[in-house]
Amino acid sequence: MKRSIVLGLLIAVGALSIAIAAQQQPQARVIEVEKLKDNLYVLKGGGGNTSVFITANGVVVVDAKNPGWGQPILDKIKTLTDKPVTTLINTHTHGDHVSGNVEFPATVDIVVQENTKTNMMKMIPNSTAADQKVPEKTIFDQNGGRGLPKRTFKDKMTLFKGSDEVDLYYFGRGHTNGDAWVAFPALRVVHAADIFSGKNVPLLDANNGGSAVEIADTLEKGLGIKNVDTIITGHSKQMSPAELQEYVQFNRDFLNDVRAAMKAGKTVDEVAGSWKIPAKYAGYAAADPGRLKNNVALAYKELGAK
């Protein structure tokens, strides 16, 4: 009997040791590949969606995910092509889109909208929050400045020519004040990233220039990019221009609801606690309470509430 008890304890201890060891092992960074065209892929996992565009002379990457995901991106690209990564475009400043920059080769040309460069200089490592304090050192400072942009644009920039052309646009404030739209005209695809992260209440980052009042107008300008069939979102599946048009109206309706509530004398808490996604937007993700309150408060501030 005693021998059975001892044996049982040994087995239990062994199983516990294996479980602890498994927990201590670093989690594999798994990247899922979705092929959109023969030379365009979307890499999912580890942060915001990443686009990989294979040109005649090299690879253009859009967004580099969270800290520690830069090398997995590069490793995955090697399974798609033997061409080198030449260009990295960041759509905006948040850590789940730019932190992997520091793992890219120093030879890579990093391009962002000019406001995004300013925001990146002060960003919080591994954060998308709008209410955190700025640390003493950014993730780029911690890596000797590696991963910071080498070039910026204001309203539009065109990279490369012919079938390799990449057009960068900035249409105004929304998710932040530096949201870049990346178009691949030959493929009829645009990477919109987090200004259209999916069918949801958007994250409006006031600390980085986001706007509840302007986001719908900005999104509508994005519809002006010609000859687009497919939109790569920040964190969801690909969408159509019709779905972007719907999202424009969704954001207009939200602002109109908040404006009416403010005129009726309701408080931010009252609006945030009662507002629901309208039934006509079936399939939209339920509003995160914290994000909803943030957006209502920002709208009140921008609309001049006292």
Detailed description of the structure:
Strands 1-2-3-4-5-6-7 form a 7-stranded mixed β-sheet. The chain is α/β, with parallel strands linked by helices and 306 residues long. The longest helix has 23 residues, at 2-24. The protein has helices spanning 2-24, 70-78, 95-98, 114-120, 215-222, 241-263, 268-274, 289-302; strands at 32-37, 40-44, 50-54, 59-62, 85-89, 109-113, 151-153, 156-159, 166-170, 180-184, 189-193, 230-233. It has one domain (20-241): Metallo-beta-lactamase, Chain A, CATH 3.60.15.10. It is globular, with a radius of gyration of 22 Å.
Please give the structural blueprint:
Elements: H1 2-24, E1 32-37, E2 40-44, E3 50-54, E4 59-62, H2 70-78, E5 85-89, H3 95-98, E6 109-113, H4 114-120, E7 151-153, E8 156-159, E9 166-170, E10 180-184, E11 189-193, H5 215-222, E12 230-233, H6 241-263, H7 268-274, H8 289-302
Helix pairs in contact: 5-6, 7-8
Main attributes?
single chain, 306 residues, alpha/beta, Metallo-beta-lactamase, Chain A, seven-stranded mixed β-sheet, five-stranded mixed β-sheet, 8 helices, 18% strand
